[in-house]
Design brief:
CATH superfamily of the largest domain in chain B: P-loop containing nucleotide triphosphate hydrolases
Oligomer: heterodimer
Strand order of the largest sheet of chain A: 3-2-4-1-5-6-7-8
Number of domains of chain A: 3
Helix content of chain A: 55-70%
CATH topology of the largest domain in chain B: Rossmann fold
Number of helices of chain B: 12
CATH superfamily of the largest domain in chain A: P-loop containing nucleotide triphosphate hydrolases
Shape of chain A: elongated
CATH topology of the largest domain in chain A: Rossmann fold
Strand content of chain B: 5-15%
Distance between the termini of chain A: 15 Å
């Protein structure tokens, strides 16, 4: 609930004074950018990253013609979002596979970031890719860490290589050897969590790297990390030259600004995200979703974008006029339905609206019912579409037959349309306000 | 990518400690805009959050002129005073038998904190029993048993996947018959947005209410000092579910300073009880607000 409120309401507020004129002044833009900065900081984006980002977007906005166009507030939000997406890497980058098998993935990170669980998740998706995976227990410090990995191995049906609490460098070497001789093509090393400033333990990681030359070194980070994320990522990257990042615990209301900070400080791709406690809860990283999350606005941007594609400005104006003088008819309704279809269907749209996403289940919304509605309208004569009030019993019967539906369904559609027109009247007379 | 390069340059400075940023702020000659800007950076770097930071800065902006403060050193004293006022709480003394219910999100160090807490009470000559109510995470009770052995206390546990409320119930019965002075309940990590898990926690809480209605009881949430503003939300939701009495702030031995407790104090009014400052079993200490602030600022 607090999600959408944070940024878009505030930006709207900053822009509210100018809602009815087209274009923004530089001062108004700066005001809006202050809100964006605050949103970034509240999302735990590092303050310097936030500062640089704001400077960049501001100058870009001033240099473009955004400020003069229609709907500039939305355009600015879109610009902010596009820049965020670009910075976080615009496409999914897969795990590298080694030429000489096995591929070795070394997991590292702070304590409690979720490495061991992530090992199981990775093992599971790699197994789906027909890889034969070996998990290696290199955390010899945390009480029961080996046992935890074994249980996760059982759950993910992956073999676990463990040698008890001996030198982790030896364990990792032996694990790779074992994989070679026993036909495993992938080894995942679960190393112990450690502080980035713990010289001795960081040295241990460097030694493991030297000993097994991993295909990838993956830094596992908690997406709830605060301003310190840059220190952590930078230290691990400096010491180990990591190849990628995995974000964990990215479910619920975590804004995850750390993702942007980490990407900014080490420039390495974010490869996967953990989104829950179960071993299936892993996804490839989507920069666009992450951007909306950081800004606290769901996927509303995608929605704006799709709406822009689907509905031309001219068309929108035409409809608005029709709504105003109550001449909106079933023909126009049909156009709108086709527009929604173009935007990916109702289900997709609802998923993108913050606060609604996940709350309206798929069974509540049936995109097929749109098709039936369309069929019903297609079975009407132009006159009927224009003046639905002339559709009485015998016409209803004919229409239902023509569209392969029932009379009840035709009745339902006509009633809904009547309701809708009433609602439109309210909206256009200003008694009803859209939330944005 | 020019953006990254530029950032890297800038971030080199970030790598310096938070104290360093406060030092930079207070080394200015005049208490001008530059001073406030530098101070904003320092407060935000300490994870105090934008809103708490602005509140603090606003107080300084009014109090510095009204108190006719002109030297940075005096401004620093004033800042310390403001911060201290925010988080300095009088924590009521424990009465025994005492029950401590530990909760928090995943990976913050709950089990470790339970082990250290047990040791702390043992060293005060108290008898302690631990309820291993994290029946979800793989090998959680094994981990707890190792800690309990180190602390020399009993653990009551059931098998993985069993009802945590039942573990708590058995522990309470055992503690009653043995006259144990301190009961510590370790629960599974749960993200605060998971409704059914929060319900499970409420159930544990109800079992305790029913079985130990008159005992001293503290519900403590464990927060990771490296966590950012999400910690505010964590406290809010856990507090709604089971009424949180206090915070255990862990992982203060890294480079993060846990300034988010400032934001939490402002919004939720919940005190910090303990601070975790290292991996050893004795590295959990009663929280001292003054030391905490000095550690951030000096």
């Amino acid at each position: 609930m607090a999600l959408f409120k944070t940024l878009s309401l505030k930006i709207n507020h900053a822009f509210s004074k100018i809602k009815n004129k087209s274009g923004l002044t530089e001062l108004e833009l700066k005001e809006a950018m202050r809100e964006v900065r605050m949103a970034l900081l509240e999302a735990d984006v590092n303050f310097l990253v936030a500062k640089e980002f704001i400077n960049k977007v501001t100058s870009k906005a001033i240099g473009s013609d955004i400020l003069r166009g229609l709907n500039s507030s939305q355009q600015v939000i879109k610009l902010v979002n596009d820049e965020l997406v670009e910075l976080m890497g615009s496409r999914f980058s897969k795990l590298m596979v080694s030429d000489s098998l096995p591929s070795v993935y070394m997991m590292c990170g702070l304590q409690g970031s979720g490495k061991t669980t992530m090992c199981g998740k990775l093992a599971k998706i790699l197994a789906k890719d027909n890889k034969k995976v070996l998990l290696a227990a290199c955390d010899i410090y945390r009480p029961a860490a080996i046992k935890q990995l074994q249980i996760i191995g059982e759950r993910s049906k992956t073999q676990v290589f463990e040698k008890g609490q001996i030198d982790p460098i030896i364990i990792s070497k032996q694990a790779v050897e074992y994989a070679k001789t026993n036909g495993y093509d992938t080894v995942i090393l679960d190393t112990a969590g450690r502080l980035h400033i713990d010289e001795k333990l960081m040295e241990e990681l460097r030694s493991i790297k030297l000993a097994v030359k991993p295909t990838e070194i993956l830094l596992v980070v908690d997406s709830m990390l605060g301003q310190d994320s840059v220190n952590v990522a930078d230290r691990f990257n400096q010491d180990l030259d990591i190849s990628g990042v995995i974000l964990t615990k990215l479910d619920g209301d975590t804004r995850g600004g750390a993702a942007l900070s980490i990407k900014a400080i080490c420039g390495k791709p974010i490869k996967y995200v953990g989104i829950g406690e179960k071993l299936e809860d892993i996804e490839p990283f989507h920069p666009d979703r992450m951007a909306s999350r950081i800004l606290g606005m769901g996927d509303v941007l995608t929605l704006i974008e799709k709406a822009q594609d689907a509905i031309s400005e001219e068309n929108a104006k035409k409809i608005a006029k029709k709504i105003k003088n109550s001449s909106f008819d079933l023909e126009d309704y049909l156009d709108q339905l086709n527009g929604i279809k173009k935007m990916g269907g109702m289900k997709d749209m609802l998923d993108m609206i913050p606060g609604l996403s996940g709350k309206v289940s798929a069974k509540d919304i049936d995109d097929k019912s749109f098709d039936r509605t369309k069929a019903i309208i297609y079975s009407m004569t132009p006159e009927e579409r224009h003046k639905p009030e002339i559709i009485k019993a015998s016409r209803r019967k004919r229409i239902s037959k023509g569209s392969g539906t029932s009379v009840q369904e035709v009745n339902k559609l006509l009633n809904q349309f009547e309701q809708m027109k009433l609602m439109m009247k309210k909206v256009s007379s200003g008694k009803f306000k859209f939330p944005f | 990518m020019g953006f990254f390069l530029k950032l890297k340059e800038g971030l080199k400075k970030t790598r310096e400690s938070i104290s360093r940023k406060f030092f930079e702020a207070f080394k200015t000659k005049e208490l001008d805009q530059k001073f406030y800007d530098a101070l904003e950076v320092a407060l935000i770097s300490a994870d105090m959050g934008y809103i708490a930071t602005e509140n603090i800065l606003n107080r300084l902006r009014t109090e510095i002129p009204s108190k006719k403060i002109s030297k940075p050193e005096e401004a620093k004293t004033l800042l310390k005073k403001i911060l201290l006022e925010t988080i300095d709480y009088e924590i009521p003394n424990y009465e025994f038998p005492l029950l401590i219910l530990i909760s928090g999100v995943n990976g913050v160090g709950k089990t470790t904190a339970v082990g250290k807490l047990a040791k702390l009470f043992v060293s005060q000559g108290k008898s302690v029993v631990i309820a291993a109510a994290d029946t979800f995470r793989a090998a959680a009770s094994e981990q707890l048993e190792i800690w309990a052995e180190r602390a020399g206390v009993r653990v009551i546990s059931h098998s993985e996947g069993s009802d945590p409320a039942a573990v708590v119930f058995d522990t309470l019965i055992s503690a009653k018959t043995k006259g144990t002075q301190v009961i510590i309940v370790d629960t599974a990590g749960r993200l605060h947005n998971k409704k059914n898990l929060m319900e499970e926690l409420k159930k544990i809480n109800r079992v305790i209410d029913r079985e130990l209605p008159n005992s001293d009881r503290r519900n403590l949430i464990v927060l990771d000092a490296t966590t950012g503003q999400n910690a505010v939300r964590q406290v809010e939701v856990f507090n709604e579910a089971i009424e949180i009495d206090g915070i255990i702030l862990t992982k203060l031995d890294g480079t993060a300073k846990g300034g988010v407790v400032m934001a939490i104090a402002e919004e939720q009014n919940i005190p910090v009880y303990y601070a975790g400052v290292g991996e050893g079993i004795d590295d959990l200490i009663p929280f001292d607000a003054k030391d905490f602030i000095d550690a951030i600022l000096d």
